[in-house]
Specification:
The chain has one domain. The chain contains three helices and six strands, in the order αββαββαββ. It has a six-stranded antiparallel beta sheet, with helices on both faces. The longest helix has 18 residues. The radius of gyration is 13 Å and the shape is globular. The two termini are about 15 Å apart.
Length: about 130
């Protein structure tokens, strides 16, 4: 754990949920691993502040992040962050060629509690 919950409003329960998140391929549901140079960041525009998925809202948010990434990122690919039991699924983007600061800014822009950094040491949750 790189940064712990605190005064941001992020609860310990939510933090633990982020730490146990599984990143999967949207096409197959199989575990995902980065396909390009590291580090990469996993950022979602969906489910702001952990609200339940609402298709009419979250599909628009997901698409708007893709449009933003077209001018920002070196490369990106669609992934899904999900709970270990598969009950929570959140469309997300694996983003290459941006800095940690840019990833955190994207998370804050889309009202996310956290983003993931994936590097040669593994995956780390970063509080926004």
């Amino acid at each position: 754990m790189e940064e712990a919950p605190g005064e941001s409003g992020l609860t310990e329960e939510l933090w633990q949920a982020f730490e146990s998140t599984i990143i999967v391929s949207p096409a197959t549901g199989a575990p995902w691993a980065p396909s390009s140079s590291l580090p990469c960041f996993i950022v979602s525009a969906c489910c702001p502040f952990s609200q339940p998925f609402v298709a009419s809202r979250d599909q628009v948010l997901h698409s708007s992040m893709e449009t933003l990434l077209e001018g920002l990122a070196g490369a990106y690919e669609e992934v899904v962050g999900q709970s270990a039991d598969g009950q929570w699924k959140e469309p997300s983007w694996a983003i290459y060629g941006i800095t940690e600061g840019q990833a955190l800014d994207l998370g804050r822009l889309y009202q996310q509690w956290a983003v993931f950094r994936w590097d040669d040491q593994g995956r780390v949750v970063l509080a926004c």
